[in-house]
Design goal:
Elements (H helix, E strand, L loop, with lengths): L3 E2 L8 E6 L2 E4 L3 E4 L4 E4 L6 H7 L8 H16 L3 E5 L9 H12 L3 E5 L6 H6 L2 E2 L2 E3 L2 E3 L13 E4 L5 E5 L5 E13 L2 E5 L18 E8 L2 E4 L2 H7 L1
Parallel strand pairs: 5-6, 6-7, 7-8, 10-11, 11-14
Antiparallel strand pairs: 1-2, 2-3, 3-4, 4-5, 9-10, 12-13, 13-14, 13-15, 15-16
Length: about 230
Amino acid sequence: MRITRMKRRPSSPVAVPVAPDLLLDSRRALVHTEQHWLAVADLHFGYEARRRREGALMPDWGMAQGEQALHDLLTDHQPQRLILVGDVMDGAGAVAETLALLERLRARVEVVCVEGNHDRAGLRRAGQFLPHWQEGAFWFEHGHLPLNPAPGRFVITGHEHPAVRLADGAGLRLKLPALVQEQLTSECERWILPAFSPWAAGGEYSSPCPRLATWLCAPHRVWPIDRSAAQEAA
């Protein structure tokens, strides 16, 4: 399996092929090296700001960490388009902060914003949000509404925050975000992106659709649970 290791930092993130011309970066981003897009889902930007306004004692670090991760991804992969696959904002109360984030990102790259269930009307209007986006055979929608399968289409969604729990039998327990690839119909696959937000712990994802592969994202490693999928992508 070919693994791309970023050059700028020791203990660097990695990007692993999950399909032809497609890399899954360990920072929870999907990258198309030929179509030159980079996609992430479920930023939930402003989560800690909203929770503090509600009276919760939350550290003020999630927004800064998330934005820096996005800028690092843009620097490392140099995409032509950044596709934000819904839930860019975490509900009401952070419209100004999220619009400022989008303005800073758009100073560097074309940004496509797909509507999510947490993206309120004021943000959607001012932030130029779309119900879906298409790049060749790849169809992006958030996933909170009925999906749009079509023959030969890869439906890329977020919303589910998929994660996998690992245990060693000796007391160690670990939960990692995951990319899930499943067969939505006989001629259409669905890929569910891991949540990008550092606050989104995620949970086990189940579906009646046949599972093709589950790819786990650790800070400096990406690997599949389904080994046959890894062999096909290599």
